[in-house]
Amino acid sequence: MKRLGVLTGGGDAPGLNAVIRAIVKTAIREYGIEVIGFRDGFKGVLEDRHVLLTESAVSGILPRGGTILGTTNRDNPFKFPVAEGRFEDRSEECIEIIRDRVDALIVIGGDGSLSIAHELALKGLPVVGCPKTIDNDLAVGQAKTFGFDTAYAFATEALDRLHSTAESHHRIIVLEVMGRYAGHIALHSGLAGGADIILIPEIPFSYNKIIDKIQDRLKQNKRFSLVVVAEGAKEVGGEMVIQKMIAGSDDPVRLGGIGETVARQLERLTGIESRVTVLGHLQRGGSPTPYDRILATRYGVAATDLAVQGQFGYVVSLDGEKIKPIHLSEVAHGIRKVDTEGELLKAARKIGICFGD
Ligand code: F6P
């Protein structure tokens, strides 16, 4: 192998630059091979936009959020957007360009980009995957994704800040967090930040149960309550709240708005003044935590090792203490949701956190 390619696809996550840096350093120092980075995911591949990644090109990027390569979520080469509502299959062209430029490709992405990587691998492209997403919802082995730790640490800090103002004003404060169809960010930040109520997509909620919890707190002279709501949470028998649809994306639904709905309803039903904070993309930006920097670095090194060893069609995945290669086909098994019978959720219930059920 002489030349390795790398790209970042889908939504960004803190730690992407740390992976790129680790790939470049490992490739050059350990294996004496060159690395090029395609700009803006598969879109940049199709437009043949790439850059040589030298050690000096990746110098200083370890603590930087975002991705120096750029990314997009409108870049599926199998369903490439050509006009409003029209897509075409440009996968053959994509494979040709990649083969012309590099001997193997590392795709750093979530379920969307890794599914594309899998389809390209099935067509014979030498590809290795590296899992990222703040949502921590990738169903590849036990894969822990980098970006998650940073996202929920930030949401935890937000809860700490909201706690004091909620308490001072005797209010209900609702914090809406991301996570798509899984409640990992809400559950983890809610636990770490001492939320009283956590609403997640895996457990449809009813307002009566939430109000019972708030009344209980009032009886204990606790005149404020903190609610964390995942963007994908919904009322029993209700629907998820959609914020917008993204034209040209093959995953067009963007959730958002449930926090406002919950705050308005709780104010109406309890008479307690309520406010909502939506964390949004603040969870995705900024510097990765030490945990995410280390995980991203380990993933970058492991993905480079796999590529050089010719073990294609796999994604690196942290399972316990070890990083293991998991077949890319596992990405097609859907997303990993919060285990509602798991120890974490049970522990939360035992300390009195209400899930609205
Ligand atoms: O998958 C990561 C994520 O941040 C989700 O939590 C969120 O629903 C979505 O991406 C937001 O996407 P966009 O950046 O396109 O608004």
Largest sheet: 7 strands, mixed
What's the β-strand tally? 15
Principal-axes geometry comes out as elongated
CATH topology term of the largest domain: Rossmann fold
Low-confidence parts: none
Distance between the termini: 55 Å
| Ligands present | 6-O-phosphono-beta-D-fructofuranose
Query: Strands of the largest sheet, in order across it?
Result: 3-2-1-6-7-14-15
CATH architecture classification of the largest domain:
3-Layer(aba) Sandwich
How many DSSP helices? 10
In CATH, what is the class of the largest domain?
Alpha Beta
The portion of residues assigned to helices is 25-40%
> Percent of residues in beta strands?
15-25%
The ordered H/E elements are EHEHEEEHEHEHEHEHEEEHEHEEH
Mean pLDDT figure? 96
Structural class: alpha/beta
Task: Provide structural commentary.
This protein is of the alpha/beta class. The protein has 2 domains: 3-146 and 288-331, Rossmann fold (3-Layer(aba) Sandwich), CATH 3.40.50.450; 150-285, Phosphofructokinase domain (Rossmann fold), CATH 3.40.50. Helix content is 36%, strand content 20%. The protein has helices at 16-31, 41-46, 91-101, 111-122, 148-169, 184-192, 207-219, 258-270, 290-309, 343-350; strands at residues 3-8, 34-38, 50-52, 80-83, 86-88, 104-109, 127-131, 172-177, 197-199, 225-230, 242-245, 253-255, 274-278, 314-319, 322-327. It has a 7-stranded mixed sheet with strand order 3-2-1-6-7-14-15, with helices on both faces. Strand 6, helix 4 and strand 7 (127-131) form a beta-alpha-beta unit. The protein starts with a strand and ends in a 7-residue tail after the last helix. The relative contact order is 0.18. 6-O-phosphono-beta-D-fructofuranose binds at residues 11, 73, 110, 133-135, 178-180, 231, 254-255, 284.
